[in-house]
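Complex 216.
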Amino acid sequence: MTLQQQVELQRRGLMFVLSSPSGAGKTTLSRRLLERYKSAGAHETIVMSISVTTRKPRPGEIDGKDYFFLEEKQYTDMVDKGELLEYARVFEHHYGTPAKFVQDHISEGTDVLFDIDWQGTRQLFALTKDVVSVFILPPSMEELCRRLRARAQDKEEVIAKRMLKASAEISHWQEYDYVLINQDLDQTLEKIDSILRAERLKRVRQQGLPKFVQGL
Ligand code: 5GP
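Predicted structure with guanosine-5'-monophosphate bound:
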């Protein structure tokens, strides 16, 4: 292990948020980022926060992997008990981030990746400075529509609704630390990875540094 890695072992994890309108490539990018770090050491690992939602699963979605699919009552119970770190209504449904999973990983120095909207991102920023946010833009609205169609998991009227909501989501781009145009998936992934690596090296995050420097 290098000296840098030893120092990095003593850092708090960061909350790495990827937001975008549906269809801009965020899910694929998240999956590929996680794959990169799957076999990495403790100080490099990043895990996905799995949200709860009251929407029904789409074909192929698995409970406990893509989301925890809840009934309204189960969701409101979690809100009432303060078990969600952030929560919001997006489209017609409720979404939220279970707090315990995130807090446990952050405190042991593991980064957590979030696929949440601007409302949730705002709430995280209000909670802590450990947040880094990235907004992914589609290259054009035509391309976004094409991607939503190609996915064909949603009905035509749902796609039309999502195109409307996409503009609303995009209007919040200025609230994010980083903004990327996802024209090429590989290149965007490289950029996201660079952001993650640089943010991990920020002085304030390297809690082992003072001790290291003192011992020089
Ligand atoms: P979908 O229904 O397509 O999976 O997600 C719809 C939107 O909800 C996406 O923009 C996604 O980022 C957002 N979302 C998913 N989980 C959460 C969550 O836990 N909190 C918030 N605030 N938004 C979420």
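The first strand starts at residue 15 and ends at 19.
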